[in-house]
Amino acid sequence: MPQEVYSNFSIRKLSILDKDGKADEKLLPKLSPAQLKEIYTHMVLARTLDEKILKLQRQGRIGTYSPGLGQEAIPIGSAYATQKQDWSVQSFREHGMMIVRGVPLLNIMLYFGGDERNAKYPVDNILPNSVPVGSQTLHAAGIAMGIQYKQKDAVAIAYFGDGGTSEGDFHEALNFAGTLNLPCVFICQNNQWAISVPRKSQTHAETIAQKAIAYGIEGIQVDGNDVLAVYAATQEALARARTGKGPTLIECVTYRMGDHTTADDATRYRSPEEVQYWRERDPLLRMQKYLLAQGMLSPQLDEQIKNESTAKVEAAVLQYEQFPAPSVDDIFDYHYKQTPADLEAQKKELHAFLDTIKPLGNEGEK
Amino acid sequence: MTKMNMVQALNSALMLEMESNKDVVVLGEDVGVDGGVFRVTEGLQSKYGKQRVIDTPLAESGIIGTSIGMAIYGLKPVAEVQFSGFIYPAFNQIVSHAARIRNRTRGKYASGIVVRTPCSGGVKALEHHSESTEAFFIHTPGLKVVMPASPYDAKGLLAAAIRDPDPVIFFEPLKLYRAYKEEVPEEAYTIPLGKAKVVQEGSDVTLIAWGSMVKTCQEALQLNAQNEKYSIELIDLRTLSPLDWPAVHKSVQKTGRCVIVQEAPKTLGLGAEIAARLAEEDLLSLKSPIVRVTGFDTMMPYFKLENYYIPSPERVLHGVKKAMQF
Ligand SMILES: Cc1ncc(C[n+]2csc(CCOP(=O)(O)OP(=O)(O)O)c2C)c(N)n1
Ligand SMILES: [Mg+2]
């Protein structure tokens, strides 16, 4: 037997809006001017919220925060393509997705304020933040198994970072999704860094998208700072999943404009030139330029959108800071459907102790 | 001697052990260029190079699994798991392989890895960043488990862990990382694993703690000095497995009372083992029932309520009173 080429593979790359906001007309997704403005408004709100929480953190008014600065196009563009019955399984940098799907800003702030009441969202089909990197990808696959079993018209979307692709769970999730042909979309926010570790130290592969090939599923790389490209790629992947054609891995190439979290100092490991390169590719400015050029946005309207965002965020901050302190009972009451007697006894014991002392001087209330 | 906080003391131990043993390698997430998210490995990569201080892909099972392989081959890996709440992807490697390879090969191969990992709460961290998971590892035969409570001990215990032939899970209470400085020798030294320390002598009641609870107990001692003035003997276990049972036994023989303080959930924590051991061997020396002051059998709450979960000096003293007033 001679040696022969078994097969050749290729990976698509999609970009619609260039860095100056000029669009490739042929590739434009079908979105009305109102929808385009809505997407932009979501992006402005996400950015405003991010900047505000960063300020609150510096003032000690909220805990450690993972900003989504510069990555807004990904959670927003992808969430904008979803329908109500679809599931969003997030990591910890998808505040934009929550904004689009109607999670109140208050809930987002409560999470970073160390308040366990944050994740009882008033909207459905969104899982809470998942901090153990990569682990949530399997939950999306599992939800997709449920959707498949019940023959529902829905898709599960998993979000994760470039670092997340190194965890074993990522491999298992894509493998399950591929072998079971699940209605699932895997969205990688490749922001070039996992804390201080660069993307090239996570995988020797040229792209993350090409990993799809090994699982026998569809893969595509998109410009993650182009909200229209993210929307279009997600739309296509969702349609594929809905029609029984299986899962897709979407690698969104972007950049973490901020520190990893407020506990990090990115100047220790990356250059200002690199940051500057990406600043010129800001997803928000790009969309703004596009809308201005199309006449869908005027400087006045832009100003109005920004003012409304600031007002919304300020209102949420007020709500957050006036939110009543949690009860110590909250430590115990949600572990089981019915709290076991032993645990009830521990709660009583804590109360009995607290009755003997003055308040501890922290936020909790009996 | 120079004043060091726990981060500096740990860093000093790593520097010195890498200097004296060329087989020591450090690996983990962000341990190289960034010097670790808590800066414990700061400066190691610039001094010893990228081959000995490795920024790995983000994969705990990978970090520990390859460490086991390196150790079998003869290297001395000191792996960092960024927070003990993220050790679970590596749990399989630790329990199924690191802990077992010596026994399975009748001593032909061993996996003398050191797994450094920050633990415990009290700094208002995000969820999964404040866990006290020592019991899983104490419960695993074949592992040693260490948790220092002071800069001086941290340096000596880490050096001992690195020189130890067996796998050591080395917990670093992150609340103590920068809590205070104390005199620490600049040169290398070790503190033997498996040996507890009597922090303060006393005759009424034995108070047993480890990790950041030692400092909490010291604060309780100060409260006690103002009020009840019981004579409290405080023991810092330092090594959790193997347990320094003779130290516990000797102290309780003397005092006849025992209060165990642990931040971890109550059920099946190390405190339960100590209480069982006392019931087996020292029951007739006890003047009052053993008291446990612990976290609850719940998730570590998010930080708004963490101070109600973590034993406070007041709660420790409450436990001491319970033992004394029986
Ligand atoms: C299993 C696990 N290991 C380590 C961590 C600590 N950690 C939090 S985020 C992070 C980097 C994540 O990088 P990436 O997946 O690229 O996401 P990004 O932060 O860039 O959005 C690390 C190491 C964690 N949360 N979970
Ligand atoms: Mg990343």
UniProtKB/TrEMBL annotation, chain A:
Limits of the Dehydrogenase E1 component domain: 41-326
InterPro entries: Alpha-ketoacid_DH_E1_comp, DH_E1, PdhA/BkdA, THDP-binding
GO biological process, one term: sulfur compound biosynthetic process
Keyword Oxidoreductase on entry: yes
GO MF entries: oxidoreductase activity, acting on the aldehyde or oxo group of donors, disulfide as acceptor
Alphabetically ordered keywords of this record: Oxidoreductase, Pyruvate
Superkingdom classification of source: Archaea
PANTHER family according to UniProt: 2-OXOISOVALERATE DEHYDROGENASE SUBUNIT ALPHA, MITOCHONDRIAL
NCBIfam families: PDH_E1_alph_x
Protein name in the entry: Pyruvate dehydrogenase (Acetyl-transferring) E1 component subunit alpha
Organism of derivation: Candidatus Iainarchaeum sp
UniProtKB/TrEMBL annotation, chain B:
Species the sequence originates in: Candidatus Iainarchaeum sp
PANTHER family referenced in this protein's UniProt entry, alphabetically: 2-OXOISOVALERATE DEHYDROGENASE SUBUNIT BETA, MITOCHONDRIAL, 2-OXOISOVALERATE DEHYDROGENASE SUBUNIT BETA-RELATED
Keyword Membrane: no
Pfam families: Transket_pyr (PF02779), Transketolase_C (PF02780)
Domain Transketolase-like pyrimidine-binding: 4-179
Upper taxonomic lineage: Archaea, Candidatus Iainarchaeota, Candidatus Iainarchaeia, Candidatus Iainarchaeales, Candidatus Iainarchaeaceae
E.C. no: 1.2.4.4
Coiled-coil intervals: none
Protein name in the entry: 3-methyl-2-oxobutanoate dehydrogenase (2-methylpropanoyl-transferring)
Cofactor: thiamine diphosphate
UniProt keyword terms in alphabetical order: Oxidoreductase
GO MF annotation terms: branched-chain 2-oxo acid dehydrogenase activity
Keyword Oxidoreductase: yes
Domain of life: Archaea
Signal peptide (from-to): none
Any single GO BP term: branched-chain amino acid catabolic process
Catalytic class of the enzyme: oxidoreductase
